[in-house]
Write a structure and sequence with these properties.
155 residues, 17% strand, globular
Length: 155
């Protein structure tokens, strides 16, 4: 198993926490430093915390910032189970994340290449490397099942 697969499986476990502990959309995120040590993790908590910015990526970056005692997450990689939205993509650029690895693409609000490509915009003074599709089927099936259940459809 590759390191990307291993860390995405950790993010998927956090997505399960979002769904089963907080009844949130199952998205999880992990931030690792340049040596591969986990420095932050999070899952969707925007409904639970009454906070529109409490997406999994933001929660993980906040935790990483506290761990590293820095608002810049230089050399860090963020693993997330769903393609980042515009808010999260720009937060990664501002945090100077080195790389983002996501599982499922988001055909409605994806901002790392699906609908928008904010991360790759050449006007930014920082570049974030992007890799998508790592364990995409696992993440996608969780999201599909969650929304089917919420809409009362058999699954």
């Amino acid at each position: 198993m590759s390191i990307d697969d291993h860390l995405m499986r950790h993010a998927l476990a956090l997505a399960d926490r979002a769904q089963h502990e907080d009844d949130e959309i199952p998205v999880g995120a992990v931030v690792v430093d340049a040596t591969g040590v986990i420095v932050g993790e999070g899952w969707n908590r925007n409904i639970t915390d009454h906070d529109p910015s409490a997406h999994a990526e933001v929660m993980a970056m906040r935790a990483a910032g506290r761990t590293l005692r820095n608002h810049r997450l230089l050399g860090c990689t963020l693993y997330v189970t769903l393609e980042p939205c515009a808010m999260c993509a720009m937060a990664m650029v501002h945090a100077r994340i080195a790389r983002v690895v996501f599982a499922a693409s988001d055909p409605k609000t994806g901002a790392a290449g699906s609908v928008f490509d904010l991360i790759a915009d050449p006007r930014h003074n920082h570049r974030v490397a992007v890799q998508g599709g790592v364990l995409a089927d696992d993440a996608g099936s969780r999201l599909t099942a969650y929304f089917r259940h919420k809409r009362g459809k058999a699954g």
